[in-house]
Amino acid sequence: MKPVYMLDFSVFKPPEEYKLNHDAGIVNASRWSMYVEENAQFQLKVVEKSGLNRDGTYLPPAIHPTFAKEPKYDMKTAMVEAEMVMGGVVADLLEKTGVKPEQVDILITNCSIFCPTPSLASMLINKFKFRRDVQSYNLGGMGCSIGVVAIGLVRDMLQAHPNSIALFVPAEITTYCFYPGRVKDYLVANAIFRMGGAAVLMTNKPSLVKRCKYQLTHAVRVHTGQDDAAYRCISWGPDPEGVNGVFLGKDVPLQAGIMLEAVIKAITPRIMTWGQYMEAAWFMYNKKVLGNPAYKRYVPDYTKCADHFALHAGEQGGTARLGGCPARLLLQQQAASAEQPALAESSGRGSSDCPMR
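Structure (tokenized):
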């Protein structure tokens, strides 16, 4: 497989006035017609348990208690946020790298819930006037795994198109995810979904290799949709009263932990050190050949074969997942701790998350 590199990236930084103070937000939201004190206190408890910074996350004006007399979450209003987030972060990245829109050969966007027509990819093509022959794709409806899926698509597209530049733009448009109903499994998304987006330039151009920050060595994907519990734990659609929203079931942390463990198991043989391969061989010899019951399952010390861990913490129970999955895989707390401040400052951004190593 030909090498694929990341030239550079940018992360969307909302305007400071969009920062949300949760205590003031509760007071301001009390004037909304949908306001219910019990539900407001429930969402505040979710914020407290999730590890979010009470004063450090951002909401768009249309659903921000400080700016909105009543929340607006229609598709037209959501597109305003999409243009701000995705357009802004792409402009920043192109300026930072000096790459011109006409130099982009492949454009891939993703947003799980907000999937308008024309697509978000088409919106960016119109805004930046990318070439007529740009290979564009917009991924949707695949939840927080969509960033991993998109990275795999970027890799495959660059394998098929040598000497090319790919622009990858992940985002989750918070406006369209807003839920005005009263069912708690849907209200969780209101408490933890915040503005977020990024832009990543990836390439296989030999002339750009020296400027690139990282090389993509592995992109592994595991699908647990065969399991009914995993398939149904997150969805978008109407509640029992017919009000649309993001449903986050109580077993999301459990299913996410199962998924993360499966993914780490899949990637492990590709990143182990030579010493760990020898340890694994000795383990298997004692278990299979000698039948020694003391040797049950080999788990390497991941801190010796990986420098950083970015375990996704986008939805309900992010902190629980960070505490559970690494413990089962014998990860040291300091190795997995980098995601904690990211969660605190950015909150759940759904498919805008794009873990890279």
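The radius of gyration is 22 Å. Residues 314-324 have pLDDT under 50 and may be disordered.
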